[in-house]
Amino acid sequence: PTVLELQDLHRHYPLMKGAIFRRRVGTVYAVDGIDLEIRKGETLGLVGESGCGKSTTLLEVLQLKPPTEGNVVVLGKDVREIRSGAERRELRRDLQVVFQDPMASLDPRLPVFDIIAEPMTVQKMDKQAVEKRVRELMALVGLEPSHADRYPQHFSGGQRQRIGIARALALEPKLLVLDEPVSALDVSIQAGVINLLDELKTRLGLSYLFVAHDLSVVRHIADRVAVMYLGKLVEVGDVDRVFDHP
Ligand code: ADP
Ligand code: ADP
Question: Which GO terms are recorded in the biological process aspect for this UniProt protein (predicted)?
Fold first, then answer.
């Protein structure tokens, strides 16, 4: 089965000129006809230099709304057939994101317990069940559960990213979007986080859309790699084949 399908995906933005007369002078073809699929249990690496359209592609997936042209099918659901905000929120639960900068995405005013628990609290999960689940999640990502009352500032960069991963896993999603998850980390701790992600994928039967500007980051985790350039995919294939390409 397929967890994500991008069918001839386009996202065009109006190119405006002037601060006062917002005159349209052209079109930015940010994503310009992408076909891609991720199968269950697969890690797809989406790579390409800055400005090639990776973030726009991610947004199209995360918003669960019809693109400019083409289509997005998430976990078997055609986004054009989503009829209500409630339906969109429900689907959104199975699709979670790990952001690039854990310092920017974790609220420094909240203890780690609250950060990880938040998605469950929003779902009105029973208090005891939440407490148990937070401890489980912390252990799962290699954090000491008794540190749940500490604040994000007290953790190292790699540990903070583990907090972000625990939070993303709280509602047992099926597809994780990893948006440059190790790019803000020291090179010496990147491998630890990548290994953890790889292990979690196998253990939990997850699928990943792993976005990175650098091919080397996804080399050891991706099953397939898609290389993006100026809004188009210039190469899609098994990781070894793409790497061996002259
Ligand atoms: P990447 O994530 O690979 O760096 P982006 O998806 O951010 O690439 O950008 C792709 C192209 O679309 C770039 O030329 C960028 O300037 C343009 N772009 C992105 N967002 C917008 C927007 N909201 N309005 C206009 N142009 C945009
Ligand atoms: P940090 O990234 O926080 O600097 P490490 O990467 O060295 O630290 O690992 C922090 C904790 O995560 C350690 O307790 C380690 O045993 C655990 N850990 C490292 N790799 C994995 C993995 N692949 N799966 C689960 N736990 C891991």
Answer: peptide transport; transmembrane transport
What's the rounded Cα separation, in Å, for the pair 235 and 190? 25
Q: Does 237 sit in the ligand 2 pocket, CB within 6 Å?
A: no
State whether the beta carbon of 47 lies less than 6 angstroms from ligand 1: no
* CA-to-CA dists, residue 23 to 2, 11, 65, 83, 240, angstroms: 42, 20, 26, 34, 46
pLDDT digits (tens, 9 = 90+) for 169-215: 999 999 999 999 999 999 999 999 999 999 999 999 999 999 999 88
Q: What is the DSSP string of 117-148?
A: HHHHHHTT--HHHHHHHHHHHHHHTT--GGGT
Contact present, 218 and 212 (Cβ < 8 Å): yes
42: phi then psi, degrees, rounded to nearest 5: -100, 150
In this structure, which ligand is nearest to the CA of 201? 2
Gap between the Cα atoms of 237 and 25, Å rounded: 37
3-state secondary structure of 168: helix
ipTM at complex level: 0.69
Write the single-letter amino acid at 165: I
Ligand 1 atom 23 nearest Cα: 13
